């Protein structure tokens, strides 16, 4: 008998939700997907089901699945493309997940076998184990819960990756546009974060938004590699140079760093990947286009001879600030 598409998906994505568990359905789904990716049941390049399909399969709200996918994207585990769907990434984040989960899988498999042999109920054991870790909490240093608050227009992926590099901690990303518009989301972010990291151009607004939170506010900044600035400074007067980021204000920030370096002989233009018409004009008219790391691969594929990477560097003072607020890492 031939399986229909729904049956096939049901067998491939054997996820379950249990409202009786002591952690949320959102966490249940996210962690199950991370397990399936981490141990190779879902591989880099595989597509996850559409949010509405998985929601119907599990009997939950579509927004819950969308939230899981967005958080997996922010952790670097999947990519989300409009019109295409959610795809497991092939990158360092997924490789690291596999490095973590495979030995955990072996340990858990042995533990479950031993529990079964001793007729110990699994849910009871693991619930008790979670409680037991609380008793050990005083022996372990508390790790900082890092929240990056940045707008969608800027290269938030660069800042997230740099924070991870410096602190060795996972970083949750929260977009300024979202917390600005949603009090429940702001309240959740405030309750989660022990350290809120943002950039200089958003510092005042973030301080105001999180004024009732006990989280430390850390403001970081980025600069540009000197070699790239020198290359731009050597351009002929009137050279048309495009600066492209995820959004227009990100491109404007890139151009402003060049202007602040005293480079004024070029004719700059700025746009974002979310402006297809303006982007097409920039690619057609500019003599050179500088792209942030977040958009470089796509632009280089479109105009390989014209597009160059705009290499950002985290400021040394920002590295020091991040290390100071994460002493346990």
TrEMBL record:
<protein>
    <submittedName>
        <fullName>GntR family transcriptional regulator</fullName>
    </submittedName>
</protein>
<dbReference type="GO" id="GO:0003700">
    <property type="term" value="F:DNA-binding transcription factor activity"/>
</dbReference>
<dbReference type="InterPro" id="IPR000524">
    <property type="entry name" value="Tscrpt_reg_HTH_GntR"/>
</dbReference>
<feature type="domain" description="HTH gntR-type">
    <location>
        <begin position="23"/>
        <end position="91"/>
    </location>
</feature>
<dbReference type="GO" id="GO:0003677">
    <property type="term" value="F:DNA binding"/>
</dbReference>
<keyword id="KW-0804">Transcription</keyword>
<dbReference type="InterPro" id="IPR036388">
    <property type="entry name" value="WH-like_DNA-bd_sf"/>
</dbReference>
<keyword id="KW-0238">DNA-binding</keyword>
<dbReference type="InterPro" id="IPR036390">
    <property type="entry name" value="WH_DNA-bd_sf"/>
</dbReference>
<keyword id="KW-0805">Transcription regulation</keyword>
<dbReference type="Pfam" id="PF00392">
    <property type="entry name" value="GntR"/>
</dbReference>
């Amino acid at each position: 008998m031939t399986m229909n598409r729904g049956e096939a998906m049901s067998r491939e994505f054997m996820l379950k939700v249990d409202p009786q568990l002591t952690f949320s359905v959102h966490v249940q789904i996210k962690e199950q997907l991370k397990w399936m990716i981490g141990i190779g049941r879902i591989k880099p390049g595989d597509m996850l089901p559409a949010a509405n399909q998985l929601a119907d399969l599990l009997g939950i709200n579509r927004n819950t699945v969308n939230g899981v996918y967005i958080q997996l994207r922010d952790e670097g585990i999947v990519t989300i493309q409009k019109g295409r769907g959610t795809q497991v990434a092939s990158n360092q984040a997924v490789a690291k997940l596999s490095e973590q989960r495979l030995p955990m899988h072996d340990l858990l498999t042995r533990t479950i076998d031993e529990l079964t042999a001793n007729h110990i109920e699994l849910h009871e054991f693991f619930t008790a184990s979670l409680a037991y870790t609380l008793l050990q909490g005083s022996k372990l240093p508390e790790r900082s819960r890092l929240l990056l608050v940045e707008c969608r227009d800027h290269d938030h992926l660069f800042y997230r990756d740099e924070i991870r590099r410096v602190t060795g901690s996972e970083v949750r990303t929260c977009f300024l546009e979202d917390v600005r518009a949603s009090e429940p989301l702001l309240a959740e972010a405030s309750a989660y974060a022990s350290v809120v990291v943002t950039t200089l151009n958003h510092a005042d607004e973030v301080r105001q938004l999180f004024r009732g939170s006990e989280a430390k506010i850390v403001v970081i900044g980025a600069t540009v590699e000197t070699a790239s600035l020198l290359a731009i400074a050597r351009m002929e007067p009137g050279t048309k140079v495009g600066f492209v980021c995820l959004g227009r204000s990100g491109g404007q920030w890139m151009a402003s760093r060049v202007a602040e370096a005293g480079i004024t002989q070029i004719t700059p233009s700025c746009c974002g990947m979310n402006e297809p018409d303006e982007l097409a004009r920039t690619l057609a008219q500019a003599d050179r286009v500088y792209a942030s790391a977040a958009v470089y691969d796509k632009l280089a594929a479109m105009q390989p001879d014209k597009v160059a990477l705009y290499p950002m560097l985290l400021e040394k003072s920002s590295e020091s600030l991040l290390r100071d607020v994460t002493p346990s890492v």
